Amino acid sequence: MSPSPELSLVVPAYNEEKRLPVSLARIAEWLGSRVPRLTAEVLVVDDGSSDRTAAVAEKTAAGLGLAFRVIRLPENRGKGAAVRAGVLEAGGEHVLVTDADLSTPIEEVEKLLAAGAPVAIGSRGLDATLVKERQPLFRVASGKLFNLLVRFLAVSGIRDTQCGFKLFRKDAAREVFSRATVDRFAFDVEALLLARRLGYPIAEVPVLWFNSPDTRVGLGGGLEAFVALFRIRRRVSRAMRARPAPPSA
111, 94 in Cβ contact below 8 A? Predict the structure, then answer.
C-alpha cells in the first residue's frame, strides 16, 4: 500500500468550471515550489453541478500533474454535504477544506499547519488588516450579527466560524464529519461544535482573505444559516449520545 499523503485538499464545487482552472493552477504552483516538498492530494467534490465542473477539473488537474480525484454528488445537496463527502474520502494526515475561489490564498495553510492543533481555522475576525477586499456593508453587518449568535448559542470564544479555510488532523476530521448532518449553511458551526464536544482543541488563526464578488451565498442562504443555529445544538447533542467521544479524543 502507498503511504498516505501528508495533506488532502477538499474543494467543494458547485458550477465552478470557470474558477477551478485558476485555483487548481495556484495549488499546483504552491505544491511545486514548497520547500520541503509536501505530498498532497486534491479532492474536488462536484455538488450536482449543471455545468462542466467535474470534466474541467479532471482535465485541468491532469495537465498540472496533481494527485487528484473528483467526487460526484448526483444532485445539489449543499456545501456542507459536499465538504462532508470529501473529508470522509480524504486520506491525508491533515485535511484542508478550502473554497473553490481560494478567497484565502492556498499559501496560508502554512499558518494553520504551524498552529499544531487538531483543528485550526482561518479567521477574518482577529486581524482586520489581513482582509484585503471587503464584502459589501450589509454582508459585514450580517456576518457580525451571525458570529455573535454563534458565540452565544453554539461555539463560544471563536470570532469567525464561517471563513472557508479550515484544517483538521486526520483523526479529528473523521470523528467530526462522521457525526455531522448539516448539508447547507452553518455546517461550519456544527463541525466546530462537534470538535469541541469531542475534546479537540481549536486554534483560530488570522489569515489573508480577499472577497469574491461572485459569492454563492444569497440572502436566502444567510437567513437559512440563522435559523439553523437554533437546531444545531440539539442535533450535536443527539449525535454525541448516539456515538460518544472515543477515549483518545
Answer: no
d(CA 73, CA 211): 27
How many residues in the chain? 249
Please write the tens of the pLDDT for every residue from 14-37.
Answer: 999 999 999 999 999 999 999 999
pLDDT tens for 136-161 read 676 677 777 888 888 888 899 999 99
Between the CA of residue 240 and those of 76, 116, 200, 234, what are the distances in Å? Answer: 27, 25, 14, 10
One DSSP character per residue, 19-59 reads: THHHHHHHHHHHHHH-SS---EEEEEEEES-SSSHHHHHHH
Report the predicted TM-score, pTM, of the whole model to 2 decimal places.
Answer: 0.91
Integer Cα distance of 122 and 203 in angstroms: 9
Amino acid occupying residue 44: V
Q: Nearest CA to 199 among 243, 166, 157, 247?
A: 247
E strand or H helix at 71? strand 68-73
- H or E element in which residue 172 lies: helix 170-177
3-state helix, strand, coil in the chain (%, to 5): 45, 20, 35
Strands of 94-98's sheet in order across: 68-73, 40-47, 7-13, 94-98, 165-169, 119-123, 202-206
Q: Which set of grid coordinates corresponds to residue 71? A: 467526487
Query: CA-to-CA distance for 45 and 82, rounded, in angstroms?
Result: 6
φ, ψ of residue 232 in degrees (nearest 5): -65, -45
Alpha helices in 73-154 (DSSP H): 79-89, 109-115, 137-153
